[in-house]
Amino acid sequence: MELELIPRLLAHARSGSAAPDWPIQQPVVITGDEVAAFVQACLSDDEERCPDIIAGLIAKGAALERICLDLLTPAARALGTMWDEDEADFVGVTLGLGRMQRVVRDIGRRVAAETPMSEDAGQAFLCGMPDEQHSLGLAMVAEFFVADGWGVTVGPPLGAHDVLHEVGAHWYDVVGLSAGITERVPRIAEVIRLIREASLNSELAVMVGGRVFVEFPEMVGKVGADASAPDAAQGPMVARTLVQARRARHAHSPPPSSTPSP
User: Fold this and answer.
1) Residue 109: which domain range?
2) Do residues 128 and 107 both lie within one domain?
């Protein structure tokens, strides 16, 4: 169970944006005991325990990126370990991850309510590689891009045809692909080529993410992508840089000549 959780992007919300009106206090440290308690809440029969824990941390002044980084990420990994070691069954782990996703959506609504779309960002489509499932991690990525002023669409587990239909039917400035399984990396090059051919945007920027691109950054160019954030915190900034560079290049391109060259 490989979850690509990318929780730091809120720290790079666009400059000049108003800070959400959440309690501002001394930094709140989330302890290992609190992570363990949250994991048990995810596995419990009480639907209110998880949101109550999150509400309590926010009330104490915990920053949302710290909740994602220091609570949700290790809790998700703990659930994966419990599954691998047969300490929790499939139903329990699925239920726990579903509760985490609801927490992510709740955090996202708080962020979106305070963050209008930025004109210098754009539209992003995020999905896992076809036939992979990274729904929790992608949901977190989406909420953080929203916090940076992006319009975001998250694809469910898709096949290649679905991805091509999406980029051929709607305008996107950036497509982000996540590959959690190393063996699927060779297929990414073909998928990226097909996405570029199908996209309405001839200047589409393609980013890739996943552990393999962190460990082997040279793979980014080899699969035909434009970039991969060097760490999770820089994801929206890298995407914004790609989009702005393409827009600037397009703006400075000479108009096509109306008469043949001599």
Assistant:
1) 26-114
2) no
